[in-house]
Amino acid sequence: MSIVKKTRWIAAAAAVLLIPAAALSAGNAASCGFSGGDAVRGKTLYKSTCVACHGANGRGTIPGVPDFNKKGGVLTKSHSVLTDHMERGFKSPSSPMAMPARGGNPKLTAQDLRDVHSYLHDTFGCGR
Ligand code: HEC
Predict the structure, then answer these.
(1) Which one of 54, 81, 85, 104 has the largest count of C-beta atoms within 10 Å of its C-beta?
(2) Domains, in order of start, for the chain
């Protein structure tokens, strides 16, 4: 095998080995056990409806908003609980402020919420 061919073969083998590793890294909705959402659409929805309170970095911009990146934080809650809280709103006793139903945008559909849910896990992980 020529040196060029050998180098190409090594590069191809490395690519095959690296792609699945990247797909399985933390912060992937599927690795959090969530499916049925389109994180790309979800990103657009997050940027228009959620970002004012939750921030692009998910750490929250105002008191009472949880940090989505926190280990053991709100993203460890079950998918059905998170869906319910996003859909109908939610207020915990410790927070001075409530999460508004559908982030305050009544036009968001169930699929929109699945998409943004997928974006949350893709971007901020599963709280683990
Ligand atoms: C007006 C501010 C505001 C907007 C806009 C907003 N949120 Fe929230 N969100 C909050 C607050 C405050 C909490 C914490 C409520 C509490 O713990 O009582 C919260 C909590 C949450 C939680 C955790 C719920 C739980 O069970 O602990 C999720 C998930 C969430 N928001 C998702 C979203 C998504 C997705 C959007 C956009 C569609 C959004 N939020 C828009 C203020 C907001």
Answers:
(1) 54
(2) 28-124 (1.10.760.10)
